[in-house]
Design goal:
39% helix, 434 Repressor (Amino-terminal Domain), 7-stranded mixed β-sheet, elongated, 12 helices, alpha/beta, 6-stranded mixed β-sheet, 361 residues, Rossmann fold
Length: 361
């Protein structure tokens, strides 16, 4: 399903506004943008601070019309703060992200484009995205999922930078995502059909973006449990940082002390917001001598390759990553070729499939 809307017109801060607030000439502001090495450090810092305070970004789209295409697309993965930890080390491998990047690489090759991939923290992404586009190194930017509200992406969009968010939806940004809320609803429905009545959820800690995939999955779970009139408990919910170890710790906390005699006090099913955490949850159940699925059913999201080889094999929600990547690329190329005065919104949602294995009773 595709929707195109036009944003209302509003006055954007101009180069002259930045000059007036900084107490410099507009020529100096132009130098800061185009040749920062020619400007004294103190002056450059003052101008950059003013640009940030005014939410000013150069009219990159207009400048881009005069450039030859770089035939390169940037794929930028945003991470909040420090990376998730696995046994005290940064979690460098993410199977979902790896699969997504491979899909984009394949689409780029077929389309005659190169793919530049970067992983940056939210503290640094503003400079990274702005710099690579201003320097003409890329024609557009794909951003992997939003996990926190981010004004800078909105500013870039309003300035006309071709930008598409993959894996999360946002009402003011072009996006290609999957139906995460409906997917969680479907998963709860299947668990209810299999006899589960006390369903818990392990969500992503620090996932504050209103329309992020993690929030959508959690909201779908809440709506479905209310619809079926299921009992819920704070004790049956946990949080993790998407890593295997955090899923292990969360399920240890939820299921700790379980015994068949005390089963009514515990969930009889757990949904974890991604497969990495679900794999950790399976190990936690094994260590606690909680049987899966006899004592507790367990499921995840993203249909990781690893989930096929766990004991028992993991039930998971699978998204059409290859098709989503291809459509994201098409949307971005459509935006890069747009000559409209106001940026266009293109937002599409793909349906998912529940891959049933042996971790649900």
């Amino acid at each position: 399903m595709k929707a195109k809307t036009q944003e209302p017109r509003h006055r954007r801060p101009t180069l002259k506004d930045v000059a007036a607030h900084s107490g410099v000439s507009f020529q100096t502001v132009s130098l800061v943008i185009n040749h920062p090495e020619r400007v004294h450090d103190r002056t450059r810092t003052r101008v950059l601070d003013t640009m940030k305070a005014l939410h000013y970004a150069p009219n990159l789209a207009a400048r881009g019309l005069r450039k030859i295409s770089s035939k390169t697309i940037a794929c930028v993965a945003l991470s909040a703060g420090n990376r998730p930890q696995e046994e005290g080390r940064p979690m460098l491998q993410d199977t979902w992200q790896s699969e997504v990047l491979m899909a984009f690489g394949s689409v780029a090759d077929r389309s005659g484009y190169a793919l530049m991939s970067k992983t940056v923290s939210l503290d640094d992404h503003e400079g990274v995205i702005s710099r690579i586009y201003q320097e003409g190194r890329v024609d557009g930017v794909i951003v992997l999922p939003i996990i926190t509200e981010d004004q800078f992406l909105l500013d870039l969009h309003r300035q006309g930078v071709p930008l598409v968010v993959f894996g999360s939806a946002h009402p003011a940004l072009s996006s290609v995502t999957q139906a995460d809320r409906q997917s969680a609803w479907n998963l709860v429905t299947y668990m209810v059909e299999r006899g589960c009545r006390r369903i818990g959820f392990v969500r992503w800690a620090g996932d504050s973006a209103v329309h992020s995939s993690g929030q959508e999955r959690y909201l779908g779970y809440l709506e479905a449990t209310r619809h079926f009139g299921l009992a819920t408990s704070e004790r049956w919910t946990g949080q993790g940082d998407m890593s295997i170890s955090s899923g292990y710790q969360a399920v240890q906390a939820v299921m700790g002390g379980f015994s068949p005699q005390r089963a009514p006090q515990y969930p009889d099913a757990l949904i974890l917001a991604n497969d990495r955490m679900a794999i950790g949850g399976l190990k936690a159940c094994h260590d606690l001598q909680v049987r899966v699925p006899q004592d507790v059913s367990l499921a995840g999201f993203d249909n990781s390759e690893y989930g096929r080889y766990t004991l028992p094999p993991l039930t998971s929600v699978s998204g059409p990553i290859a098709e989503m990547a291809a459509r994201t690329f098409e949307v971005l190329l459509e935006l890069t070729g747009s000559r409209q005065a106001e940026p266009t919104l293109i937002q599409e949602t793909f349906q998912t499939q529940l891959v049933i294995r042996e971790s649900i009773r």
